[in-house]
């Protein structure tokens, strides 16, 4: 009789041991991953009972918490509505996104660097508060980007960077949405329903087109092709054949957008080809350079380097591989399978502006505790050395021809009294009217801002649709 009892006791003890191990595993090992799991909404509901820190742009609180006395929970308020929605994101009972998500531990006060502050609050009986997250966004540039994009009546995106640091000065994506409509703590059902409608909307208002949508960059990519040529030993005066229609080596043809040869039938210089945005000569440059050199130059600017966090996630931009010579020629003008986010093309412009050095983009300038003590501050990082300073200088001179030259293709990007370096782009996309691009930086002799603008399915030209948007953003930064 004792033997069966002993066996049962040992079996029960083993089960108890397994239970203890499982509890230990969940509470000690898996606790962090379970707490941060996207399907775990308790972390958000629980945090509605404490005031989150504000998110600040310039001197403006663009997101802050107010106590709702009826529910005794803190309601998140988003000043400016749709103006900052894709950058700031939302904090909801069902989840978070944008800066609200990536900086959550600072904003809700749970970060380990706030432990001492929270302990002192507990001792003094004060309510613990989250930290303040200060963004790099320039409110004037952000508003200018929104106004100018909305004036086009199209979907699209715009990004502005400080070329010397990588700070994101503006980032707008259209269509946008009002985060206040999805963040109610007193009517969470309606808020959740509104979020569901946004998720199902075919226009994709929740998509951050500036950071998470890739497009064929069209002729803006010719700056990368020209950079590869210059780094390979060419000069701005070096030439390639530039016929009206190029017979591509592996089949197919490529015409110039303006229906004529680029230099009255003679080989065209690299500088003039950028000025007028010649397709056939730039395709010849890509073919002559070869896939490896083109890919290496694209990577130097940030293509094919994987997902990046700034701290919000950014989709990778890509340059294709395994190309035949016809496909290679098409990549030289930013077509075939070349894909880029607006942020990536702003990085290209910023790299040229910054003497060939691309700085890593970032959105958070600093984090301050509730007592205004500095917890973290931005430390600008070099992302890559894309080109030599001499190549960057040549590229700048070529881009000045785009806005100032007698045959410049981007004169709508010019600012009276200020030199603007730019490049237009018109990208075929296989799904309707062309996308229209403009990348630029200004002032050219002392760059303060680099910009990329894309207009989805504009059907016009980069000069007609995108350049005026870029000009408005640059003016807002320079005139402050």
Question: Would you write up a description of this structure?
Answer:
The structure is a single chain. The chain is of the alpha+beta class and 480 residues long. The chain has a domain at 212-478: Beta-lactamase (3-Layer(aba) Sandwich). 38% of the residues lie in helices and 19% in strands. The protein is built from 18 helices and 21 strands. The chain has helices at residues 2-29, 31-35, 42-46, 85-88, 99-102, 104-107, 115-124, 139-152, 188-200, 209-212, 222-231, 270-276, 279-289, 291-301, 325-331, 342-353, 389-404, 462-478, and strands at 55-57, 60-68, 73-78, 91-92, 95-96, 132-135, 156-161, 168-174, 239-240, 245-247, 253-255, 268-269, 308-309, 313-314, 357-359, 364-368, 374-377, 382-385, 421-427, 435-442, 449-455. The chain has a six-stranded mixed sheet with strand order 3-2-1-6-16-17, with no helix packed on it. It has a five-stranded antiparallel sheet with strand order 8-7-21-20-19, with helices on both faces. Strands 4-5 form a two-stranded antiparallel ribbon. Strand 1 (55-57) and strand 2 form a beta hairpin. Helix 13 (279-289) crosses helix 15. The termini are far apart. One of its GO terms (molecular function) is transferase activity. One of its GO terms (cellular component) is plasma membrane. This is Peptidoglycan glycosyltransferase.
List the helices and strands and how they pair.
Blueprint: H1 2-29, H2 31-35, H3 42-46, E1 55-57, E2 60-68, E3 73-78, H4 85-88, E4 91-92, E5 95-96, H5 99-102, H6 104-107, H7 115-124, E6 132-135, H8 139-152, E7 156-161, E8 168-174, H9 188-200, H10 209-212, H11 222-231, E9 239-240, E10 245-247, E11 253-255, E12 268-269, H12 270-276, H13 279-289, H14 291-301, E13 308-309, E14 313-314, H15 325-331, H16 342-353, E15 357-359, E16 364-368, E17 374-377, E18 382-385, H17 389-404, E19 421-427, E20 435-442, E21 449-455, H18 462-478
Parallel strand pairs: 1-6
Antiparallel strand pairs: 1-2, 2-3, 4-5, 6-16, 7-8, 7-21, 9-12, 10-11, 13-14, 15-18, 16-17, 19-20, 20-21
Domain Penicillin binding protein A dimerisation: 52-133
Keywords: Transferase
GO cellular component, one term: plasma membrane
């Amino acid at each position: 009789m004792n033997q069966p009892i002993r066996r049962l006791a040992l079996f029960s003890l083993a089960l108890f041991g397994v239970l203890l191990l499982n509890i230990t595993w969940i509470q000690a090992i898996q606790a962090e991953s379970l707490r941060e799991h996207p399907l775990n909404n308790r972390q958000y509901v629980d945090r509605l009972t404490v005031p989150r820190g504000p998110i600040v742009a310039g001197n403006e609180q663009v997101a802050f918490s107010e106590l709702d006395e009826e529910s005794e929970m803190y309601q998140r308020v988003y000043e400016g509505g749709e103006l900052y929605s894709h950058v700031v994101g939302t904090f909801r009972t069902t989840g978070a996104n944008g800066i609200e998500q990536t900086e959550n531990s600072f904003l809700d006060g749970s970060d380990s660097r706030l432990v001492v502050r929270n302990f002192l609050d507990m001792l003094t009986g004060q309510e613990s508060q989250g930290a303040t997250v200060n963004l790099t966004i320039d409110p004037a540039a952000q508003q200018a980007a929104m106004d100018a994009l909305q004036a086009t009546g199209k979907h699209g995106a715009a990004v502005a960077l400080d070329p010397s640091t990588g700070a994101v000065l503006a980032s707008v994506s259209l269509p946008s949405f009002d985060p206040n409509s999805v963040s109610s703590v007193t009517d969470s059902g309606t808020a959740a329903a509104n979020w569901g409608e946004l998720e199902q909307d075919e226009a994709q208002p929740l998509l951050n087109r500036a950071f998470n949508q890739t497009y064929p960059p069209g002729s803006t990519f010719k700056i990368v092709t020209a950079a590869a040529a210059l780094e390979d030993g060419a000069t701005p005066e070096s030439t390639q054949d530039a016929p009206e229609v190029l017979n591509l080596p592996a089949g197919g043809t490529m015409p110039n957008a303006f229906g004529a040869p680029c230099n009255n039938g003679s080989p065209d210089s690299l500088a003039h080809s950028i000025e007028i945005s010649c397709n056939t000569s730039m395709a010849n440059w890509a073919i002559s350079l070869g896939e490896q050199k083109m890919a290496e130059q694209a990577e130097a600017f940030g293509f094919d380097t994987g997902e990046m966090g700034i701290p919000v996630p950014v989709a990778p931009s890509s340059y294709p591989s395994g190309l035949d010579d016809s496909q290679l020629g098409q990549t030289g003008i930013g077509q075939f399978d070349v894909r880029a986010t607006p942020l990536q093309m702003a990085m290209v412009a910023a790299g040229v502006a910054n003497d060939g050095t691309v700085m890593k983009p970032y959105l958070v300038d600093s984090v301050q505790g509730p007592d205004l003590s500095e917890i973290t501050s931005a430390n600008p990082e070099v992302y890559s050395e894309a080109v030599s300073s001499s190549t960057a200088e040549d590229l700048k001179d070529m881009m000045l021809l785009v806005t100032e030259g007698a045959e410049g293709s981007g004169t709508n990007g010019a600012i009276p009294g200020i030199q603007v370096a730019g490049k237009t782009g018109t990208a075929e996309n296989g799904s309707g009217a062309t996308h229209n691009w403009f990348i630029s930086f200004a002032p050219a002799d002392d760059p303060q801002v680099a910009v990329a603008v894309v207009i989805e399915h504009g059907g016009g030209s980069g000069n007609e649709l995108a350049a005026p948007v870029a000009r408005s953003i640059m003016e807002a930064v320079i005139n402050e």
